[in-house]
């Protein structure tokens, strides 16, 4: 397109401000500007003087931004805090310190070394993850922009070096490095196009315009040499849509608004360059103000694990307390029972200072308590945390390298940026999703239209395509739409229209050719798009404010009405002349553009054609356009309404096209009133304009309707369908207008036709009247009352339909959401929302997205997942239990603040249903097994101490105690956490209800946890008493030696190593060679360690010196006892599991039975199990298709046939 050249030496001649007739060129001071200088409005910016003493005294924030969790200074203290806020780690720190005292039953080194290893591994992992965030920060902060050096020249500087007051020059397609005051641009009237997708998620371009006072004087680089100006404005805040300030230039004051502010992370589009003054930097910018510090997220399982450890603490302290009382009593009565001598003479109480002295029994009992607390610490698995850390890192590696979540087009694999939340992926109850760039791929396609009551377009939408696939190839649409599945795909961006009756000029042969000509002319003229002509090829492309408009002008071009030029007051296009059959160029004089906005829901242009006729061309939403039709303009209304409803059911966005001829006198009167209203500076300026345009846009003649597809990302409907079958609730939080959100809701099957929509907004006549009156307090009160009333009516509607299986959808706009989220009403809003199958929040600010996410998370107590792609989603991602960033679009703010990044929304299906379920199942089983083996080990320690009259004597050697959790039982459980699969990925897809095991936390319920602990208790009792009894009354070897502590301890320890590892064999569902190596290797490692450690000198190996080779291995009773204990200890679990599997199976066990019995390929049996996941109130294609079947009996035979075929 025509544009300015580098250096500003040639500026674009097109004065685009004339296109935007609603914009007031001259700003005036209004009520808001009276606050400048007061509280909240104290910022002073000295433009072009960033290093002046006055600027430096202000000490504003720099432009460096940080998204990391740690800094070099805070890493060690903060990460240590993160580690020791885990209650088990803190407990082991306390026992480690106590091990340095004479009370310790074991050496200090054997206690502190494992703890140090655990903490070090965890800190290294945290550091590696935060370094990844640091590298992304470095990339953003090191971007470069041209900055004025004070001498009329601009030099390249890094973003991080920018200061408040700097003058910068931003080139086309560059991001704004800070919040800038627009001074001038490559256009004469200082407008520029800005893409705000990173802020509000919208892809349509916004128009910004600088003040005439600056744009008229600042044309080239050298013009800035003498610039001196002062900006006084509001302090940093999070409001993206307002800005209040004044510019003091040459002793004149000029009011500033959001129209002059260019926000950081927006992108300059369709404009060669802009000059701007830096107003807010770094963490003062509005986009950063809308984000929060990266939270320290912990999974629900980890928090519940803390509760288990608290319970184990209680058990440990209770056992220590009871043991100390028994020990005190035994010590006090020791001399009395023996008639003055000590019965426990072998403890040498006469040589003891306190511990076994009968004269100091109370003090001995207290000291014993501390010793017992250290001794029983083996009930708490010290390697649990570090093992989980290792497992989560390895799980993340599998997620990152999953080829089925790799997006080849952008070379983006999945990326787990933190591994702390892997198991939370299997417990998600509610997904809160952005729309633009997350569900959609930011492109619109013209696909169907209705002209003069006839439907045209044989394309098929993604919704129809998915429904056709599920119906065996026949699309579930109306009979009058001759829909054919076309797999060739669109060949032209924005155009996917196919109909031989219209293409290649065949429309002239239609009966209503004159109406069709007016229809296509309207598409070519009624817009604000700007054409760009390729000088080499002559091809015309378009830059438009919205994807819809781009699709319309492309459609008009492809159908023979090519818009190719726009001037200050004219639009030129080529069309096929009906009379001559030749291509002719036509020029319409553009008089006014009446812009589209969410209140008007329509856009119009007033033009004069070549015959001198005045025409009003209008397009808008059906609910406002049909009521504006003239009595003689409703000829095609009935058929058009039918087609619009069919298009909506197919998930398409529709607009009604209409026109009328305008009388000259009427236009003169309109123009006079319109210009007066436009130039007024009163608070009701917008209302005056609305009234005047409302009168003009009436008595229209209907031409037809357009239908464009807001192109979803590939696989979005199927993904939503599968997630809905899994029982996951999906909310959409979008900055788009309500109509857009509703349409995309239909497109991805979050909404369906028979759903009852509960719409909460503030578009009531009473509130509109109050807004005209400008009474702020009255407006606020009335709005609050209206929202509460609408919520009560919605709740009553849901309550009244209980038992009828009716599905409801809640749709609420941003203004209403403000009141619904107030403390007094947010519970009421949550109750209403959770009673609906779908929830869509429109016009949501980033702050509101975060607040809604917080409300759902805290109000339901369930796991929430936020997913988005822009900076406007950062607060939501950080507030949610899990934040998923979409990395397939421009901007990295969402990815930088996310926990996991994926390239496409559809990958969420595999991430949750497969990886999420596996991670949840593995971590749950892993933790349960950890407590099982530690209770088994700890109970034998307790029983031995009880057997030795609570003398604080450990059953095992010091290093046996320390290395049990590190070497002899940890590797198998790590392998379980990484490789086990209770159900294959194919069955996870086939039976999505399996996911509810995580949502309902069935695999980590207290019932299951206590069950595993009880299993550990039974196992320990069996091991200890069988070993003790087998060796108590017999000679241990031919030399007549009886079993001492080292022999009994070694035998018990061997049995424990065998039993806990064989228990793992019984618990694993999916064996790999890794499991075999680590299980049998752990057992072999015990024997190797026993021999190597026993071969060391007695001073180091102490009572383990040659215990295996000289005593245990030669004794047959040692091997027989081990074999007998293995069988007897595992029988209870085996019997229980067999009964449960046969008579009370869990859902994953049912699926295992299906696979085992060979029913996995039996469609009827599989479908019977799958039907458990489909509920009448759910969303998605499955529910939509089921509803279509319920509504119409004509599909029953087809469905039955398809089911049998399937």
Automatic annotation (TrEMBL):
Keywords: ATP-binding, Magnesium, Membrane, Metal-binding, Nucleotide-binding, Translocase, Transmembrane, Transmembrane helix. The chain crosses the membrane at residues 106-124, 308-329, 365-386, 930-947, 959-979, 1009-1027, 1047-1070, 1077-1096, 1116-1136. It catalyses: ATP + H2O + phospholipidSide 1 = ADP + phosphate + phospholipidSide 2. ATP binds at residues 434-436, 549, 596, 619, 653, 734-736, 843, 849, 872-873. InterPro entries: ATPase_P-typ_cyto_dom_N, ATPase_P-typ_P_site, ATPase_P-typ_TM_dom_sf, ATPase_P-typ_transduc_dom_A_sf, HAD-like_sf, HAD_sf, P-type_ATPase_IV, P-type_ATPase_N. It is found in: Membrane. Its cofactor is Mg(2+). It holds the Pfam family PhoLip_ATPase_C. Residues 45-111 form the P-type ATPase N-terminal domain. Its EC number is 7.6.2.1. GO terms for molecular function: ATP binding; ATP hydrolysis activity; ATPase-coupled intramembrane lipid transporter activity; magnesium ion binding. GO terms for cellular component: plasma membrane. It is a multi-pass membrane protein. Involved in transport of phospholipids. Belongs to the cation transport ATPase (P-type) (TC 3.A.3) family. Type IV subfamily. NCBIfam families: ATPase-Plipid (TIGR01652), ATPase_P-type (TIGR01494). This is Phospholipid-transporting ATPase. It comes from Brassica napus (Rape).
